Structure formats: structure tokens, C-alpha cells
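Incident log, support desk, overnight shift.

02:14 A customer reports that sequence design results differ from what the structure should imply. Their input is reproduced verbatim below. On-call engineer (initials T.W.) acknowledged and began investigating.
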């Protein structure tokens, strides 16, 4: 069941919590810890992309065994209310909702994870409230907030890595049409977003689509991003940072994502082998080994 809190403009926003209490082998620092029975430390706030309902994140492949996950629905999606002011869908305004959630949870500092477009919100928040960020993980991140462009040729090169797949001809034709401005068939392109286009990926695709077109359009509206000031602030960020790319990710290819990682002092950059845009679906164990180790290493206790 969702819980609710109020944004600064009064919009009623929802969040859910995911955590496991059963025994599990966990990655802690450089070694394994047997019998981890509860998530350690404060929660990790996990920002979905889209903007869309956070349910597609699930428990991030079992990351909830390492830390308690707090999953907010961005304004106008899922169980969160539609705001009175459509301009409040902008990324810079949504970052203020993260601060409202921090206050609601009673946390002095937060561990923050952003997936895809949610990474733009996460870095905007980190730039604005650096003293409130204890650790930051950016998962197959969007890069608009820092002005890094993913060019059509870069996506094409990433797509050609999958040319042996049976679905490739139709998906590649749809990608070429999108790149050339001849329309977008997102269902045809979808197989590029997972490391394996199997039944699990198809089910996940059906539940990961944004449902509020106004929220999607408003998120990147004029004024939403200030790349120059954001980059300057991130250079001074003292919190540990993990940036994770998927080897086959067409949306956020490893090249541009590595450029994002380079903006942070001492960030850890990793590429998950065989993964697309949703690495916790493609290989949950590999994903949680990397991300779980990161958050376990920076647990407050």
C-alpha cells in the first residue's frame, strides 16, 4: 500500500517501500556476508524514469535485501496526484519533490538511486542539495541534465551489436525511421532495451510504459535543465557515486554514460555485461552484486 506526503506546492505524492527480511547471501564491501537477515541502514530513495509509475522498478532485482527501498511515484503518475500547475512537471521542479520526501522521512542525508530519466532528477537534486546526499547511484542514466547528447550514430552502433538476434531486422528498421524523423514505433524498437527479448522482458515492457503524456513532455520542457551550473556543482560533490551502464543499452549507451561518470570526482563506473536498459531484469545477481555492494559499503551502520 502506498504512503503519502505533500510536495511544497501541496500536491499529494505517493511512495511505496520494498524490503526483504529473509536470509540471503549478500555482497558487503569486498567479501560475502552469509545470512543477511534485514536491510542495513537508512532507506535508498529510488527515482524511476519516464516519468512513470515506479512499480516497474519492482524490488530492483533483489536490491531490497541489502537496503530498504523507497519508491516514489513522480507527480501525475501512479498513485501521485496530478498537479494544478503543469509547469511543475519540469525536472528542476521535480527535484524539489525529492527534498520534500527527505523531510517527510525525517532523514538528514539520503542515499539516492536514479534510473533512466530519474537520473536527471537525481543529479539535479545532488547539484542543488549536495549536503543532503550521502551516496548516489545512477543506473543506465539519462544525461540531459548535464548536456551530454546521445547521437543517432551512437545508438546505431549500439544497435548493431544485436544484429544476430531474430527480431533485429524489424527493430533496426524502426530505429532507422526514428533516427531519420520518420516516426517512432516504440513497440518495434523495444527489444533493444533488454539484454534478452524473452517472456520476462515482454512482460516488463508492458508494465514500464509512461501513462501521462503531459508529464513526459513537461519533464524536459524549456528551463528544466541547466547543464553548465549542474556540471559545476557535481564536480564539487563529496558523496560517493556509482554510475552503471548496460552493455547493449540503446537508450543510454556506455560511451555517453562514461562521460557522465567522469563529471564526478572519483565516481565508480561499471558496465554490466549482456544488459540493456533494465539491468536488474537481465541479470539480477550481477546487478545486485554491484549496486548492493555499493550501498552496503556506504551504509550508515
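02:41 Re-run completed on a clean worker. Output:
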Amino acid at each position: 500500500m502506498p504512503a503519502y506526503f505533500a510536495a511544497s506546492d501541496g500536491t499529494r505524492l505517493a511512495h511505496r517501500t520494498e524490503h526483504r527480511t529473509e536470509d540471503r547471501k549478500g555482497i558487503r564491501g569486498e567479501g560475502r556476508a552469509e545470512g543477511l537477515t534485514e536491510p542495513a541502514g537508512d532507506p535508498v530513495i529510488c527515482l524511476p524514469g519516464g516519468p512513470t509509475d515506479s512499480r516497474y522498478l519492482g524490488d530492483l532485482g533483489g536490491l531490497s535485501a541489502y537496503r530498504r527501498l523507497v519508491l516514489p511515484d513522480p507527480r501525475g503518475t501512479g498513485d501521485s496526484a496530478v498537479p494544478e500547475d503543469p509547469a511543475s512537471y519540469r525536472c528542476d521542479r521535480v527535484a524539489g519533490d525529492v527534498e520534500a520526501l527527505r523531510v517527510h522521512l525525517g532523514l538528514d542525508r539520503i542515499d539516492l538511486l536514479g534510473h533512466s530519466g530519474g537520473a536527471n532528477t537525481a543529479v539535479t537534486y545532488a547539484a542543488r542539495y549536495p549536503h543532503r546526499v550521502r551516496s548516489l547511484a545512477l543506473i543506465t542514466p539519462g544525461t540531459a541534465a548535464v548536456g551530454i547528447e546521445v547521437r543517432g550514430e551512437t545508438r546505431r552502433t549500439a544497435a548493431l551489436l544485436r544484429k544476430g538476434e531474430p527480431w533485429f531486422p524489424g527493430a533496426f528498421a524502426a530505429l532507422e525511421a526514428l533516427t531519420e524523423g520518420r516516426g517512432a514505433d516504440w513497440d518495434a524498437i523495444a527489444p533493444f532495451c533488454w539484454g534478452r527479448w524473452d517472456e520476462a522482458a515482454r512482460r516488463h515492457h508492458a508494465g514500464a510504459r509512461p501513462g501521462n503524456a503531459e508529464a513526459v513532455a513537461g519533464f524536459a520542457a524549456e528551463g528544466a535543465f541547466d547543464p553548465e551550473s549542474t556540471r559545476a556543482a557535481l564536480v564539487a560533490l563529496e558523496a560517493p557515486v556509482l554510475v552503471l551502464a548496460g552493455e547493449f543499452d540503446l537508450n543510454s549507451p556506455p560511451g555517453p554514460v562514461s562521460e557522465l561518470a567522469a563529471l564526478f570526482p572519483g565516481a565508480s563506473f561499471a558496465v554490466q555485461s549482456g544488459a540493456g536498459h533494465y539491468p536488474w531484469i537481465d541479470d539480477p545477481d550481477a546487478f545486485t552484486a554491484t549496486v548492493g555492494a555499493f550501498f552496503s559499503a556506504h551504509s550508515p551502520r
